[in-house]
Amino acid sequence: MTADQTVAALRKWGVKFREYPGWRTRGRPGAFGDVRGVMVHHTGSNSQSDDYLNFLFVRGRAEEGIPGPLCNVSTDMDGDLHVGAVGRANHAGRGSQTTLSRVTAQNYAGYASELRPGADNVDGNAHYYGNEVRYDGARAMTAAAYRTALLHAAAVCDFHGWNALAVIGHREHTRRKTDPGRNPMNKFRTDLAAVLRAGPDGDDMANADEVLAELRKFQTAEAQRYADLANRVQALTDQEEGRYADLQRRVQGLVNQEAGRYEDYVRRFNAILAALPNGASQQTAPEAVPESDDPSSTS
Question: Does position 6 have pLDDT exceeding 70, yes or no?
């Protein structure tokens, strides 16, 4: 997409955006003509400052050999979209050719589950537009940011003739990453598909509050699943501890039973000796073995 095409697409879909100085000519050296999809990220920071935009679009992480721009666009928590680079950006890095092939084909089960990336064997920067959502990723996006991310993806997909399966999260590109945080990408693609079906003038655009409510329901369900799993693990632990304690009691019972039988044997032997003539009764009965509290004792 050229700069003018980008602006036209965003306006068509009603995206509230700001143009960062120099974006119309900004991009990394290298091929960017074979674009296949959109990749959604989170920055890992809640900073909404202008300096952070400069970091994303201009400075980058040059000291690490990763100069800017680090994305094509960035989405604020309040829903503003900043357009920072028209060309190639250092956002995706090395990732899965398997994922890229599925995105290109647009026929995988991406509405039911997230993609599991294969080995890092392709340069994603050459094939994906990058949207960095400015938040820490520790929770779901704000409703406003989520809505804007949907609209930006819709604008790009509409321009290229892609469906919602052309949009992935960074973690679906490489196992090294976790972004975009607590936002299931199969849910994002499902919402995006609804937006694309409705069109830029449709009235079926997902309501931001409804989207946020759905995300919170998902988070609550995941938390409950984790709690249920923890309870089941604890129950199994308690059960095993109970079985071990019962086994100890049974072993000790057997030891005590055998000790009692031996004492009874000694008493009976002594009684027999006492009934014999005096000479024979001088024999000594076996000594009683003291009762042991240790079931492992062999002495």
Answer: yes
